[in-house]
Design goal:
Layout: H1 2-11, E1 16-19, H2 23-42, H3 48-56, E2 58-61, H4 64-68, E3 73-76, H5 82-95, E4 101-104, H6 111-115, E5 124-129, E6 138-143, H7 149-161, E7 165-168, H8 178-196, H9 200-210, H10 217-224, H11 226-239, H12 248-255, H13 282-285, H14 291-306, H15 312-323, H16 329-336, H17 338-352, H18 360-364
Length: 366
């Protein structure tokens, strides 16, 4: 993520310092940037001179104090471990100029909690790029409780200046927008498979052909990585039991190091490290009723609206750009019938507890 964010910033004219804890990490990152730029040249997207200019705007540095000297914005992209993030910001806080804005590229960790470790929480914000940053258009912008409005505007301006589309998550809620929709869905797909006694390919086909996803849920989970999903699950569930109903399969796959595409096995098995599509079809889709999966994602979308973290328009934009949904969620809901979805949730709540209770917004939309 770090070298990707550095590259897209340099491509938009910014001077970038790329910092890591050891030189060999930086050498590897600069090698990846060069490879990416060479590829753009070979595809005639940019000229060789442009590639050289972009590359020269990125300066690799190990020393933290030197790295942040005279910088305006620090985008941190260390692993999703709260103690590590806090340690990094403690170091940054002591060496960075007082005008520097800090932005964490976290996908689930609470912005306010990290900000409170700083002497200037009003200058701290969440800026969640999607992987790979070069290709994905969406960036979630998440203010913490103390983030100033000036910093929110500044961050939005930066995101737009690097030709990305920002979506603001107005409250620092677990999972923000996209992960609040996606992560619980992976667990729900496991429960649906058990309840309906069907195969993964049947669920994935129904999700792809009937709900407008770019690929199946299990396929998308393997592409994302079980390590990412498991860590996000733990962090989100720790802070809000209503957001997610963990299914033991996720933790089991994580513990067995079956992390998906990157390890050759996750929900599915893969023959090599090239991205491989799972054979899905409309015939397989007929074996699965995806209503419970749709109900789950809608309930979390409605929660975001009810708790004033977002609105339907922004959620649809995030789902389209972040999850690749081909048609709006609430439009799909109308096709199935909102009263049918609410009824489904009420029946699930009777059988499996209050996790499934329909959000007031969905009840009002019947």
């Amino acid at each position: 993520m770090g070298h990707g964010i550095a590259q897209i910033s340099a491509m938009s004219g910014y001077n970038v310092v790329l910092r890591d804890i050891e030189q060999h990490f930086l050498d590897k990152a600069m090698g990846k940037i060069k490879w990416s730029l060479d590829k753009l040249v070979s595809k005639e997207k940019i000229s060789q001179n442009q590639a050289n200019d972009i590359y020269s705007r990125i300066k690799p540095v190990v020393d933290l104090k030197e790295a942040v000297k005279e910088c305006d914005l620090v985008v941190e992209a260390v692993p999703e471990i709260m103690d590590l993030k806090k340690k990094v910001y403690s170091e940054l806080d002591s060496v960075a100029d007082e005008n520097v804005v800090f932005a964490s590229n976290t996908s689930t960790l609470p912005i306010t909690e990290i900000a409170n470790t700083l002497s200037r929480p009003e200058k701290f914000i969440g800026i969640h790029f999607f992987n790979p940053p070069l290709l994905m258009k969406l960036v979630e912008v998440i203010p913490g409780q103390k983030t100033s409005q000036d910093i929110v505007k500044l961050t939005m301006d930066y995101v737009e200046s690097i030709k990305k589309i920002p979506v603001v998550c107005r409250k620092d809620v677990p999972g923000f927008i996209v992960n609040r929709l996606f992560i619980p869905l992976v667990h729900e797909a496991c429960y649906v498979m058990e309840r309906q006694g069907i195969k993964m390919t049947e669920i994935d086909s129904a999700v792809k052909f009937n709900l407008g996803f770019p690929m199946g849920i299990f396929e998308l989970a393997d592409f994302t990585g079980m390590d990412v999903i498991h860590k996000a699950t733990v962090e989100m569930h720790l802070r809000d039991k209503k957001v997610i109903r963990p299914h033991p399969t996720i933790e089991k796959l994580y513990n067995e190091k079956k992390l998906g595409q990157k390890t050759g096995e996750g929900f599915y098995k893969y023959s090599d490290d090239k991205y491989e599509r799972i054979p899905l079809s409309e015939e397989l889709a007929e074996k699965c009723d995806p209503k419970q999966i749709l109900a789950n994602i809608l309930n979390n979308a409605a929660w975001l609206v009810t708790h004033e973290a977002s609105d339907i328009l922004e959620i649809e934009k995030a789902a389209n750009l972040g999850l690749g949904l081909k048609k709006p969620l609430f439009e799909t809901a109308k096709e199935y019938g909102m009263s049918e979805i609410v009824k489904e949730l009420e029946q699930l709540a009777q059988k499996h507890g209050q996790f499934y209770e329909p959000d007031p917004l969905l009840v009002a939309m019947q």
